[in-house]
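Checklist before submission:
- one chain only
- standard amino acids only
- sequence pasted in full

Submission:
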Amino acid sequence: MATEKGIVTKISADTAWVRTLPSEACAGCSSCGTCNAQREDAEVEVLNEVGARIGDRILIDIKTSAFLKATFLLYVFPIIGLTAGAMLGVQFADYYAYDASACSAAFGFGAFFLTVAVVRIMGNRMGRERVYRPRIVKVLPPMAPTKVNLQDHCPV
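Returned file contents:
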């Protein structure tokens, strides 16, 4: 399970909008201060199964298997489509005596855009399934009122 801490900024019927906080891992990272990963707080919509309220400090969880599956679909699947399309384009060019580079590029980009469309459709379907959505698992005790930013976690 991948977890993050955050603060609830808005709530609706069964979801909450959460501003994620820089991780404690930022303080020990060698790229601290130069990394753009946590420059600005990210705000995400999560399932609110514990009844968190606005201002609550919470712990968010997403199942690792669901996260990896979504990552594969988003990043790896289009690259596989591009490669397979390019290889198919070369075979097509050899069979019909066309320019191999042009056919490879045309088929590769065509397959790439087709897989991006499939990713969009699948992503919308997956986004409606609860297993692929982050959820609040715990309301944490309140902190002293301070503004959390990267400098709090990274000695500069």
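Reviewer check: The helical segments are 25-28, 64-96, 100-128, 150-153.
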